[in-house]
Amino acid sequence: MFEIPTVLRSDEFRKLIRKDRNLDQITHKSTLKKEQRITDGITQLMINTSDKWEKHSDFPFWNWVRLSYEFERNVCLNDISYFQSVLVQNGFQLNRHYQIPNRGKKGKTRAIGVPVEKVKCAIDFLKEKHQELTKPDKGICVDWSAPFDFKGVPLPSKIRIDSSLLKEISAEVLEVSEKLNLEWNLQLRAANALENDGWLEQNYKVSEYGRCFGSGLSSLQTMPKTILKRVLKGCWNLDVNTASFVILTEEHRRRFRNSKFPAIERYIRFKTWIREEVARSIGADPSSVKKGFTAIGFGMRTNTKLFYDLNGNLVTPTLTSTFGGNLETARKFLDHPEVKEFWSEVRVLFDDLSRCSEQELTGLKKGQRVSYLYQHREAEILRSICRSVGENLVIPKHDAVVIQNPIEHQEINWIQKKVEEETGFRITLSEEAL
Prior knowledge:
- The chain contains 16 helices and 16 strands.
- It is α+β, with helices and mostly antiparallel strands.
- The protein has 3 domains: 6-118, no CATH class; 133-233, no CATH class; 243-433, no CATH class.
- Strands 14-15-11-16 form a 4-stranded antiparallel sheet, with helices on one face. A 3-stranded antiparallel sheet has the order 1-3-2.
- The two termini are 28 Å apart.
């Protein structure tokens, strides 16, 4: 979970957010501490709306999050029912339905809806506080004094940004629906940055699948892309082109003698032309077609018709929603000869890799095995790139890095060759200003 900024743990904010009880009237110390913990629990649930890992899968709304038993016990060990009653009295919507894990099936926690009015109140509170904490523009600075060790490759653990930019961006956001969620995210990150003079701890950790993740509100990796581009304006993105398909086809070649994927290889070499041609022939926007091809690589299903889920909610399939809910365009994309051949090869690629890795990756499901193979290889490539760019690095992504200064075409070619020498993967890189 994202950590609560210090300013939101203040008594001033606690009194503001609680509508069911006047904390000033509590004289008993243990009772006051209990109520403070409960109030901080309320704040944590509000912050969880900005954390994608805390979203509840049954509710397609930004302000519905998970309410686990463990969380409730941490907040109020001996009186969970009281904590729930406080939530309801403060406008939270509690969905009591949950599923216990059974026979290998993943369970589901309860869900809770965070009242929009509470979020608006917190945003206004932070805005007022941020006016009092205006910091001078110091620009981007990378601290290499205590780097994180990404399996032998150093990564800068602290980045300083111009925190006033977060305030400027939040002022441009309209307070409606999803835009309110974005502003809340911005204000939380601004609070964190302002409290630390613009310095942001990246809090890296390496997952079992090999990827390097930043965590918390201070992580630039977890920052929404639209915000990140503004915050790191002047930096450059160095991206591995069609990384997933380059990695998985090479992995297949290493494991199978007869390894041919002509449609995928065409896409790797001529992706822009293919996207534009498919878009022209089906009457769609090239950006939607790009999303479609990307989604195929993530295992998107071929169904296009709307359906009802187990809770009776009408669901638009990923393929159809990719094209703005237009069923006819989605079907045209599905029936295009280039897409058909590409999709067929992706299925074979995934099935082969999953089957041949079953013995070495016991305990993982079919899709998880392919993800494990991909992410470990992706991490190898990323480490090679990080070594090559050296202290020009700002942050690593998963299949890209952000660097402070642009590099020449000749150096890009050199990095590509180094990656091939160190990992065996022949990649191409593209550079773009943020």
